[in-house]
Design goal:
Helices cover 32% and strands 20% of the residues. The chain is an alpha/beta fold. It has a single domain, classed as UDP-N-acetylmuramoyl-L-alanine:D-glutamate ligase. The strands form 2 sheets. The chain has a 10-stranded mixed β-sheet with strand order 5-4-1-8-9-10-11-12-13-14, sandwiched between helices. The protein has a 4-stranded mixed β-sheet with strand order 3-2-6-7.
Length: 340
């Protein structure tokens, strides 16, 4: 009897799984709970009816029940592998009233809020590297062999922030399969002038490249401060679209093929915890872009995913978004879309 073939996921999502310790400004602490950009992206894809195939590396002591919960919600977890080398998978963020994130010195933030300090956070140092290595794999870097063969039969994929080496090797692997639509969100550590010569090859095979305003300005330091000029410059390296999350929470979309520009507003909601919102946006964008290749409609759906994400803590909160509420928010956002 031949083994049963695994179903091909609607989209492949590649990123990090983390143990999160979040202190929102005005809501309950979210401590030693599942998180990471991959988890937020997965729940956003599920929100819109997609079935994601997940690729990541986790520690050997990463809770099995967290992986089982991802699977129970509808994710294919065959691409999640235990790393033989241990790494720090903790993520800490304390938010101020203006949603500014602080990642340093967690003891002080717990003391300031008169909360008991979790022993699991002892010895914590921020896991966000200042610079990526251009050649060396980290313990949690993705290897080509981490991606299950049936994932390469999917037509869409998204690469969340990991590191430079992972982002360098994955696009050619994915596009060498049946992946036609590939999106990728930039890592802070390589959006820097020292990586200027590497960026062209890095994004050449990407359909949609996502970045923040701060990342764009840092990469183009001394070259340009005009976000539209930066978007056009990067798009000419290959991406059909460049999407920039601006400081005012709008999203700027530049289309290389149509030479068009759009500005999308954020949904006017009370943000409790912004952790993972951009990852939720990315997956919401990807799954909806694959439906009819309408970049604006896809980005509006991404904005809706981000709005649900921000209203609570943790990736599973995203699934609270009811279909009627999704449509209502899409209607509101559509009325405030700007075409330039």
């Amino acid at each position: 009897m031949e083994p049963e073939l695994s179903p091909v996921p609607d989209a492949v999502l590649i990123g990090r799984l983390r143990r999160e310790y979040i202190l929102p400004a005005q809501s309950a602490a979210y401590l030693d709970q599942p998180g990471g950009n991959l988890a937020y992206a997965a729940m956003s894809l599920l929100l819109w009816g997609g079935k994601p195939g997940l690729v990541s590396r986790v520690n050997q002591n990463y809770p099995q029940e967290w992986l089982e919960k991802l699977e129970a919600k509808g994710s294919d977890i065959q691409g999640i592998h235990q790393s033989s080398e241990a790494f720090d998978d903790r993520f800490f963020a304390a938010y101020t009233e203006n949603l500014q994130a602080h990642h340093e010195n967690p003891i002080a933030h717990f003391a300031e809020r008169q909360l008991p300090f979790p022993q699991e956070l002892l010895g914590y140092k921020p896991t966000i590297p200042v610079y990526c290595s251009k050649t060396d794999y980290r313990a949690d870097s993705i290897r080509i062999t981490d991606v299950p063969s049936h994932y390469l039969e999917s037509s869409a994929a998204h690469i969340a922030p990991i590191d430079f080496v992972s982002h360098k090797i994955l696009p050619s692997l994915l596009k060498g399969g049946l992946v036609q639509t590939l999106s990728m969100r930039a890592c802070n550590c390589y959006m820097d002038p020292i990586f200027w010569e590497e960026i062209r090859a890095l994004i050449a095979d990407v359909t949609a490249f996502m970045m923040t305003e701060a990342q764009a300005l840092k990469l183009f330091q001394g070259r340009s401060t005009d976000l539209w000029e930066i978007s056009e410059y990067l798009a000419n390296y290959g991406p059909e679209y460049v999407l920039t999350h601006a400081k005012d929470n709008t999203v700027l979309i530049y289309s290389r093929l149509k030479r068009q520009r759009w500005i999308l507003p954020a949904y006017p909601t009370k943000v409790v915890d912004p952790t993972g919102a951009m990852d939720a946006f990315d997956a919401g964008f990807l799954i909806n872009y694959r439906k009819d290749y309408d970049v604006v409609q896809a980005a509006l759906c991404g904005m809706v995913s981000a709005s649900f994400c921000g209203e609570g803590s943790g990736p599973f909160f995203i699934l609270e978004g009811l279909p009627e509420l999704r449509q209502a928010r899409l209607d509101v956002l559509s009325q405030h879309l700007m075409t330039l």
